[in-house]
Description:
- The chain is of the alpha/beta class.
- It has helices at residues 2-10, 16-38, 73-87, 91-110, 125-139, 157-169, 207-219, 281-286, 296-302, 328-340, 355-361, 399-410, 420-428, 446-453, 459-473, 507-520, 525-551, 554-559, 561-567; strands at 69-70, 117-121, 144-149, 175-177, 191-195, 222-226, 249-253, 272-275, 291-294, 317-321, 345-350, 366-369, 388-391, 416-418, 441-442, 476-479, 485-488, 491-495.
- The strands form two sheets. Strands 1-9-18-17-16-15-14-13-10-11-12 form an eleven-stranded mixed β-sheet, sandwiched between helices. A seven-stranded parallel β-sheet has the order 4-3-2-5-6-7-8, sandwiched between helices.
- Strand 2 (117-121), helix 5 and strand 3 form a beta-alpha-beta unit.
- The structure holds ligand LP7C6HRI and potassium ion.
- Ligand LP7C6HRI is lined by residues 76, 79-80, 94-95, 98, 122, 124-129, 151-152, 154, 156, 197-205, 226-227, 253-254, 279.
- Residues 126, 194-198, 225-228, 230 line the site of potassium ion.
- Its cofactor is Mg(2+); K(+).
- It holds the Pfam family Carb_kinase.
- Keywords: ATP-binding, Isomerase, Kinase, Lyase, Membrane, Metal-binding, Multifunctional enzyme, NAD, NADP, Nucleotide-binding, Potassium, Transferase, Transmembrane, Transmembrane helix.
Amino acid sequence: xxxxxxxxxxxxxxxxxxxxxxxxxxxxxxxxxxxxxxxxxxxxxxxxxxxxxxxxxxxxxxxxxxxxxxxxxxxxxxxxxxxxxxxxxxxxxxxxxxxxxxxxxxxxxxxxxxxxxxxxxxxxxxxxxxxxxxxxxxxxxxxxxxxxxxxxxxxxxxxxxxxxxxxxxxxxxxxxxxxxxxxxxxxxxxxxxxxxxxxxxxxxxxxxxxxxxxxxxxxxxxxxxxxxxxxxxxxxxxxxxxxxxxxxxxxxxxxxxxxxxxxxxxxxxxxxxxxxxxxxxxxxxxxxxxxxxxxxxxxxxxxxxxxxxxxxxxxxxxxxxxxxxxxxxxxxxxxxxxxxxxxxxxxxxxxxxxxxxxxxxxxxxxxxxxxxxxxxxxxxxxxxxxxxxxxxxxxxxxxxxxxxxxxxxxxxxxxxxxxxxxxxxxxxxxxxxxxxxxxxxxxxxxxxxxxxxxxxxxxxxxxxxxxxxxxxxxxxxxxxxxxxxxxxxxxxxxxxxxxxxxxxxxxxxxxxxxxxxxxxxxxxxxxxxxxxxxxxxxxxxxxxxxxxxxxxxxxxxxxxxxxxxxxxxxxxxxxxxxxx
Length: 580
Ligand SMILES: NC(=O)C1=CN([C@@H]2O[C@H](COP(=O)(O)OP(=O)(O)OC[C@H]3O[C@@H](n4cnc5c(N)ncnc54)[C@H](O)[C@@H]3O)[C@@H](O)[C@H]2O)[C@H](O)CC1
Ligand SMILES: [K+]
């Protein structure tokens, strides 16, 4: 060990114990420096939520796919109940979670910016969500004013819990607004959080609360609604004199709500997103709903790919019945769309006058005619062995045609696609309904629907009347519109594709062709209806990239049907990589 001592002496140290002390000190300094380096810099410290103690994944903001089920209010309350029972947590924790996710959403966008935020809370659970959000914002040094809109004296327990937590977190207590109080000034530079009414709104709002809604709407402030815009009912149409908050953005919990898709209320929803607040997945998955959204995932499940050794006889023969003098375009559009939808063969049954027109326009399509030489057909009698028949486009409502259609219906057993003038004829002669085969698909626009089922008062009334009519006659009805809704057996299927470009002449004829073409390929009538509506809308969504919304015409939709099929299996765009 002589070399060790010599080394110590070199360093000017002769005592071994002093050296050990020296080594110990060096190691301590090194360990301290290492530990200190592990501390995050002040600016990147994560916010501490109460809920973090309950769920380790709480800090991860999650946006999952939109639920394809649309739950009723009772089902959402039940989902809450099941979730808290299964997780063994008090219900206020679910409110903490919901409010915390909204805070994350806001914080991600504002990043600490000192914009004045005015949080308006009701006294139900929606107000409780607002209280939780306000507390997180205050704890994280945002510029917040909280209001309690005291529309009712029945403050619910979790609202009170969230209110108390806010009051113990800050001296900046909420301002209570009662009837008769002066309403707070709101400037266009403010951000307004609307947590006044949620899905619990079930009756007309008092006038002074409406006045507050109006003040918010007139303020030009950025409005963020929590769960549903206040004043919008979950399960009924707006009443005469109602005021609804007009949000710039709505964050809705777990699943979209039915009024987000209906013509009376959907225009209010400028933009919205769904926050997954972790309601019990088993309950959500196993609960059957009366309303479903149909998007790509649903259509993929229905789609059947073609075998390698396919021949045209395997994909059915579509027969499209329609056309009249001056309206041959409609049947041409429908016939071509049936081909593009994948029908192996297509025949058009038209008046003789239309043969040269159709044969020139569509070399792929065959024709059959009646034995008369009129501007409309007077008889429906054909040799084609059709797998599916669509009737109506451009057909006209001439009494001879109506008679021919009545006779034709009596001979039919398999589901038909019934559109346009065929619907108008049935609406005028309701006895014909008795001869319509079960599971036939009617595709009316609102005018044709009204002729068929009579007037309705509002969206909810229309849905109910149409569903009952369809059930009574054992048919499916495709209510064409901005979010086309199909009903069969008292269920509603809301289509998730399409754009205003489809509001153009002939787009309904294309839809008839697509659905008939799918039916001919052996799809179940409901599959054909839902897939047809989806592909029609999706083709238009892709086509507007080329033609624009205003420039889109019906035949463009047909041209893009193949792309809509291909899009089913297109890889989703990768989300941008997070900076490391
Ligand atoms: N699972 C979830 O989605 C969760 C949702 N949360 C939030 O809870 C609300 C629903 O709460 P609820 O207390 O049932 O309803 P509101 O907050 O909308 O409160 C309405 C309240 O007022 C009464 N009321 C109804 N109409 C009127 C009226 N016109 N005038 C006066 N009073 C009225 C009604 O009886 C209620 O008491 C949901 O939207 C979410 O925001 C949970 O926080 C977390 C889980
Ligand atoms: K709200």
